Amino acid sequence: MSWQSPISPGISWYEASVPERPFYPPMAGSRKADVAVIGGGYTGLQAAYNLAKEGVDVTLIDACRFGDGASGRNGGQFGTGQRAWAEDLEEVVGRERAQLLFDMAENAKRYLLDFAREHAIDMEFVPGQLSVSHKESLEKEYRRHVEVMAERFGYPHLSFMDREETAGRLGSSHYRFGIRDAGTGHIHPMKLLVGLAKQAALAGANIFEQTKALKIDGKGGAVRIETERGTITADRALIACNAHIGNLEPVTASHIMPIRSFIGATTVLTGRPGILPGGESVDDSRFVVRYFRKSKDGRLLFGGREAYTADNPRDISSHIRRQIREIYPALADIEITHAWGGTVGITMPRQPFCREVMPGVVTIGGYSGHGVMLSNFCGKLYADLTLGKDTPLDLLKDLKIPAFPGGTRFRSALLFLALSWYALRDRL
């Protein structure tokens, strides 16, 4: 029987299609550790794995099950670079730092592919990503991006697609043009998550599900984490809760905003070879982005609605179907077999948030929809930092990430108003 996440709506196709998803026990009583990790998504589990394999005593807890949050329910797209285009990031942080941040993301891509290969994790990697535009006015910007990435950032894997090529690769004439990225791809996120948790446990990490952190205190030379099932005392700690931070730690909560994103999986597209014939994933230029791809068994996995409050739409399927119909009219009546949502952590500038929030306690998150490869790599980088190795994690610590206005009480309402305006602009 498929598991219903208590923090994310709907049964995901990923959950239904993964061969196995083992339960891990809750913590039983108080414990001591060298490092405590709060959050069992990609960031936390990668940190636990990389520390444990070096002999560090690690205890990891998650309030629910590993993969109940974004790590097990996302769109599966790697992307390239950071969330912002490299040339846009250059305007904010300068040429040298923009290059370093881009190189960091490329290393993240290589790390994740190597990790899956080393441990024989079949995460169903498929190469290729298409970034397409719904507005003619963006053509110059898209063409320039291809040139800049090759000439200034040393990334030759992008090619501009005119309207004809875009239509051919999508099987739809809805979009004007786009960029094909042959240097990235997409995966089955839950298969990666399950394999990662297994490797963390095999490496010797003590990993516990259904153990909620209630309070964290970094005073007095040790970190104390109070949970529903006992207290963890550690030399240092990583907060890897991302969008699910709640009231646990105020600095993280003020800088990372939770938003809901929703995905639907159709029945298998039998007799429709013209839809995404190359198997690439797709994301578009809307502010409220639409993203879609085909699964290994030939379903259309389509995401395209966001919510900025804790409320969920009553019928996720109907929202998803309307957007599918705009792009693929022939699929207007196709059955949606699974519809689900998850919570993504975003920051104001859409750049990752990394800070030491109290002595010995680091928080990492806010990948802003670009976390499949970055979150895995950041978990590894936190382990490297703890082990005294050279790490580019300071690049993220130095980013100027402002807190959201309005505090945790009013920020959702303010963001809803602002983003509703951008969503309206998408339709103009």
UniProtKB/TrEMBL annotation:
Residues of the FAD dependent oxidoreductase domain: 34-385
GO MF annotation list: oxidoreductase activity
Domain of life: Bacteria
Pfam short name (any one): DAO
InterPro entries found in the cross-reference section: FAD-dep_OxRdtase, FAD/NAD-bd_sf
Alphabetically ordered keywords of this record: Oxidoreductase
GO cellular component, one term: cytoplasm
Entries under PANTHER family matching the protein: FAD DEPENDENT OXIDOREDUCTASE DOMAIN-CONTAINING PROTEIN, SARCOSINE DEHYDROGENASE-RELATED
Descriptive protein name: Oxidoreductase
Native source organism of the sequence: Sinorhizobium alkalisoli
Lineage: Bacteria, Pseudomonadati, Pseudomonadota, Alphaproteobacteria, Hyphomicrobiales
